[in-house]
């Protein structure tokens, strides 16, 4: 019955925001921006949009925010359905999503190619990142998993993954990562532990045969198990481990850079907590903006995209989200570059599609249930 | 139309709305879940594959045994504590009983998530309790959160107040005259309880037992936040299978199994109620 009610809930939520408005008669264009994720994403757009509207009085932006887990997928589903049923236009003019959304929609041709003649600031973005997204999605912000540690108890943090594993063995019970199925920071710890034994490009392969090569990584995780917090307790959710770090029950955790920096700023974490990236780095990922091919207001949407990629807008994004900018670091203000120096050394991306599910499943039976 | 036909139709018209709601929100979903659960997750064929795997896979079997263990132990302890508390509140005089009587149902008004976080803050490794004990020189604190005992604690917190409330109202209906005359005839306290109070509140005990059992076996929030990573209770495992592994059919099979467990409880409950009706008529 729980299953059914979840399905029902998911089914209902897609309908919200379907009455997006079209161009009004007064010469202003209204575009709808569909976004999701945590509350901080909503707050970010509520700051960016007024700034944009001030500079472009003829464009109004309607923000349609679908909280994470309630209907983000259904926006893409709606676009696909609109395409298949031969509709001429949709009320989604910009969509914030992931690389997965791009790939999923690309086969049906629902995303428009982004062009630097219409969006000059695309040149601010790393061209490799755009190529990876088929020029259909622009990474406008990113965050990654980093090591968060309490510097009052850890004077020299590990620099490499092997040093980290050694540190864990030498300090039993002082490290925790969360159940990988419940949050990206724990999942990044697990993924990097497995894929550090494999060639670098393995992380981008969704070939099921890859699963044969995971044994070394899982053996490492099993071996580390008894050295974890309370000999193998993996809290739920990204916040679960941050809470343990805040209360001093552990000294070191993997954490999302944006979550950790925000909580440091709000003093939810003690000020002695510091962040560092290890080598090879943990995984992370950008958030993308995509423009549906069937949008009838592409010109206005392109203006918004162009605005989002200016250093000014990116500064707001970095300050609000405590994440990485979508544009190149050297275009950002110097002081921001310094402030983020500890975490900006980079991250790897894990794009293995459904393999993530299998990693989580195997982790549950082999590592949690050992 | 005769009078009785008219009355019959009126009765039917009164029943139909509630029956329709019951049909749409309870019966249909159950049938749908049963149907989903019979489609094998791996092969896509119709059959009992999901159920066979559920009982043969070691991890899932451990989960089922763990869930039953937690549920039965919690139910028994919750019932014993509630009964003791209800009896004390019924016959106890003095300020203690009065204050407990006013306060014991407060946990029912605390939302589950908040209560769970409260338990974590209070009983975790570096929680308030551990720090208070440290003040008086005790520096070892048992592992409560993220383990079986934490789960037990949460279940007791959530279920004792409700069960106590049910049993209290049943005990309030036990006439004082019965108790006094039994005492006059020389009945001891134990005899009084087993010969008079228990039989007079037996029906409510079954109601309480059923509600505690069903509440615990289907619980999710507390086990998700303070349970161990493995084994998991069925509610948590089902959520994981459903949303993380996206195995809808396996999850449905687990849901149906849980529903069957609750039906067994429901059967005893209805039978007890039925016996009572027979006696009255």
Automatic annotation (TrEMBL), chain B:
The keyword Transport applies. The chain crosses the membrane at residues 12-34, 64-91, 103-124, 144-167, 205-228, 248-270. It is a multi-pass membrane protein. Keywords: Cell membrane, Membrane, Transmembrane, Transmembrane helix, Transport. It comes from Paenibacillus hunanensis. It is found in: Cell membrane. Residues 64-269 form the ABC transmembrane type-1 domain. Pfam families: BPD_transp_1. PANTHER family: INNER MEMBRANE ABC TRANSPORTER PERMEASE PROTEIN YDCU-RELATED, INNER MEMBRANE ABC TRANSPORTER PERMEASE PROTEIN YDCU-RELATED-RELATED. This is ABC-type spermidine/putrescine transport system permease subunit I. Signal peptide: none annotated. Belongs to the binding-protein-dependent transport system permease family. CysTW subfamily.
């Amino acid at each position: 019955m729980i299953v059914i009610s979840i399905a029902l809930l998911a089914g209902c939520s897609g309908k919200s925001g379907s009455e997006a408005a079209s161009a009004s008669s007064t010469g202003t264009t209204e575009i709808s921006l569909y976004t999701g994720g945590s509350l901080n994403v909503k707050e970010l757009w509520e700051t960016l949009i007024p700034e944009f509207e001030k500079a472009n009085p003829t464009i109004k932006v309607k923000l349609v925010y679908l909280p994470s887990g309630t209907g983000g997928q259904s926006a893409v589903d709606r676009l696909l359905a609109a395409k298949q049923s031969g509709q001429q236009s949709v009320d989604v003019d910009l969509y914030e999503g992931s690389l997965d959304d791009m790939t999923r929609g690309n086969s049906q041709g629902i995303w428009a190619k982004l062009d630097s003649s219409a969006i000059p600031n695309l040149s601010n973005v790393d061209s490799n990142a755009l190529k990876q997204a088929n020029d259909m999605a622009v990474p406008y912000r990113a965050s990654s998993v980093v090591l968060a540690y309490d510097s009052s108890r850890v004077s020299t943090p590990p620099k490499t993954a092997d040093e980290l594993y050694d540190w864990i063995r030498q300090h039993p019970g002082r490290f925790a990562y969360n159940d990988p199925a419940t949050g990206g920071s724990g999942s990044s710890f697990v993924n990097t532990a497995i894929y550090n034994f494999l060639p670098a490009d393995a992380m981008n392969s969704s070939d099921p045969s890859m699963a044969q090569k995971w044994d070394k990584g899982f053996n490492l995780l099993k071996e580390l198990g008894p050295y974890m917090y309370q000999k193998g307790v993996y809290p739920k959710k990204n916040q679960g481990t941050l809470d343990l770090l805040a209360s001093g029950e552990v000294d070191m955790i993997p954490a999302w850079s944006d979550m950790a920096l925000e909580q440091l700023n709000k003093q939810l974490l003690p000020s002695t907590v510091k962040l560092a990236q290890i080598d090879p780095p943990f995984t992370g990922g950008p958030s993308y903006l995509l423009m549906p091919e069937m949008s009838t207001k592409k010109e206005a949407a392109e203006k918004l995209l162009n605005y989002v990629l200016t250093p000014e807008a990116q500064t707001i994004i970095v300050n609000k989200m405590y994440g990485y900018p979508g544009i190149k670091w050297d275009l950002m203000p110097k002081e921001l570059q310094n402030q983020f120096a500890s975490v900006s050394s980079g991250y790897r991306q894990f794009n293995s599609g459904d393999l993530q599910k299998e990693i989580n499943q195997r982790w549950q039976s082999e590592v949690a249930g050992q | 139309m005769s009078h009785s036909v008219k009355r019959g139709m009126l009765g039917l018209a009164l029943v139909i709305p509630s029956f329709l709601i019951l049909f749409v929100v309870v019966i249909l979903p159950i049938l749908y879940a049963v149907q989903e659960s019979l489609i094998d997750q791996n092969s896509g064929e119709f059959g009992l594959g999901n159920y066979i795997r559920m009982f043969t896979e070691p991890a899932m079997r451990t989960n089922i045994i763990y869930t039953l263990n937690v549920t039965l132990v919690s139910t028994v302890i919750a019932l014993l504590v509630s009964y003791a508390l209800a009896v004390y509140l019924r016959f106890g005089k003095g300020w203690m009983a009065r204050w407990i009587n006013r306060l014991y149902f407060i946990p029912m008004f605390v939302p589950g998530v908040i209560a769970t976080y409260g338990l974590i803050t209070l009983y975790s490794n570096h929680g308030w309790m551990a720090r208070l004990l440290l003040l008086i020189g005790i520096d070892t604190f048992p592992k409560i959160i993220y383990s079986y005992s934490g789960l037990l604690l949460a279940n007791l917190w959530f279920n004792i107040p409700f069960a106590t409330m049910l049993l209290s109202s049943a005990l309030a209906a036990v006439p004082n005259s019965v108790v006094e005359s039994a005492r006059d005839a020389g009945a001891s306290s134990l005899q009084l309880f087993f010969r008079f109070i228990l039989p007079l509140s037996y029906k409510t005990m079954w109601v309480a037992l059923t509600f505690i059992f069903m509440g615990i076996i289907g619980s999710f929030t507390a086990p998700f936040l303070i349970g161990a990573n493995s084994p998991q209770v069925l509610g948590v495992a089902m959520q994981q299978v459903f949303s993380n592994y996206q195995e809808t059919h396996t999850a449905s099979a687990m849901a149906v199994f849980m529903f069957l467990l609750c039906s067994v409880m429901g059967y005893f409950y209805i039978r007890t109620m039925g016996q009572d009706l027979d006696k009255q008529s």
